[in-house]
Specification:
Layout: E1 6-10, E2 21-26, E3 32-36, H1 49-61, H2 64-74, H3 82-118, E4 128-138, E5 147-154, E6 160-167, H4 171-178, H5 183-192, H6 206-216, H7 218-222, E7 224-231, H8 236-241, E8 251-254, H9 256-273, H10 292-307, H11 318-339, H12 345-348, E9 362-365, E10 370-373
Parallel strand pairs: 4-7, 7-8
Antiparallel strand pairs: 1-2, 2-3, 4-5, 5-6, 9-10
């Protein structure tokens, strides 16, 4: 009995994107076995794992179809056609959206459970009030971006609760028009196509429009009201959702980081506007004065004074709020007095927090009425 030889050949007619089909044929028995270079990801159709993965890489790296085609050309490899590429994009985005929706649904449940634990008088069927952070971003800088996205994040859990993409352009519509179809054919195709365009207006206005969408569906999706909105200094998005719940008003909370930046900005502006010498015959800046280093320290201490007196619970009592605000104000005033040198140390440090862990090194002996101060802060 003689052994036949094995021949490996590619079946070019079965090629699909980066997937190639080889056949291993025996010269003795004339039987052949197919050897695909990638497994299929569906039971039907010609969707292969290698094509799905390479398209996912093109999306993640931002190179897109043109970058993928260039790479395949340099490597002398077959590449997907443009329609096949965007078909894979649709499949990937659909899977990612389904996964994201499930994650956000579970995030809403966890937040609702946490609010119920902090407020035992509430019931599981009640619509709960939540504190969320809101922001938006665009595909590119400036005010010419065709795509933007807005999102809300729970302040209590740090998890994303919802997002919305706004677009002024549709790649599929553009590709269809590029094929030279007439208006009648395009309108007929448009009836079956889900166009990505869902916004008409200026790019900066996307943030306001997206906020309205997210706030209006918060109860439907999570049985939550986004009652408190933490955002940056821009109030336009807040104005668009303030009355979205009717009589229950949405309240705006400023981000501590942005509040710190505003203090830094105002002090720098004050320093720039103040020319010449002050009443004591010295300039506003310089060593021991309002230097850039001291302004940064003011900014840091100001943020700490706010954060250290923040109430963590969702619905604090009025008395708790009053105590926290009083302590916050006292710590902020202490920063100013502590840094303004005075011959009367008692007056200069009277608002500084006491104790060994205090950042202020001044101490008053109440029995003798004498004070001591060790430098270093």
């Amino acid at each position: 009995m003689s052994l036949g030889t094995l021949t490996l050949e590619e079946d070019k007619s079965a090629r699909a994107g980066l997937m190639s089909q080889f056949s291993l044929q025996c010269s003795s028995c004339e039987e052949s076995s197919p050897l695909p270079t990638s497994s299929g990801v569906t039971q039907r159709g010609k969707s292969y794992d290698i094509n799905c993965r390479v398209v996912y890489h093109a999306i993640e790296s931002g190179c897109g179809y043109e970058g993928l085609a260039t790479f395949c050309g340099i490597m002398n490899m077959p590449c997907l056609s443009k329609p096949a590429y965007y078909k894979q994009v649709d499949n990937i985005l659909e899977a990612l959206e389904d996964e994201a929706k499930e994650d956000m649904r579970k995030a809403g449940e966890r937040l609702g459970q946490q609010i119920l634990e902090e407020n035992p008088e509430k019931d599981l069927d009640d619509t709960l009030d939540a504190v969320v952070s809101f922001d938006g971003t665009w595909a590119k800088q400036g005010f010419t971006s065709l795509t933007g996205v807005v999102f809300v994040i729970s302040v209590d859990t740090g998890e994303v609760l919802d997002y919305h993409v706004l677009s002024k352009a549709c790649q599929k519509c553009a590709l269809k028009k590029a094929k030279g179809v007439n208006e009648e054919e395009f309108e007929e195709w448009l009836l079956e196509h889900e166009c990505d365009i869902n916004f008409a207006g200026s790019s900066p206005a996307m943030e306001c429009e997206g906020a309205v969408v997210l706030w209006e569906r918060s109860v439907e999706r999570h049985n939550l009201r986004y009652r408190w909105m933490v955002s940056d200094g821009d109030s336009k998005a807040f104005n668009s959702v303030e009355n979205v719940y009717g009589e229950i008003k949405v309240k705006k909370l400023d981000c501590v980081g942005h509040v710190q930046k505003r203090m830094d900005k105002h002090l720098l502006n004050l320093k720039a506007r103040t020319k010449g010498k002050l009443a004591d015959g010295k300039p506003i800046g310089g060593i021991g004065r309002l230097s850039d280093t001291r302004i940064k320290k003011f900014q840091k201490d100001y943020g700490l004074a706010i954060r250290q007196n923040t109430i963590r619970k969702s619905n604090p009592a009025r008395r708790e709020v009053e105590v926290a605000v009083y302590a916050m104000k006292k710590n902020i005033i202490a920063i100013l007095h502590h840094n303004v040198e005075s011959n009367d140390l008692t007056k200069q440090h009277r608002f500084c927090p006491p104790g060994e862990s205090s950042w202020c090194k001044w101490k008053l002996d109440e029995a003798t009425g004498t004070s001591t101060y060790s430098s270093g802060n």
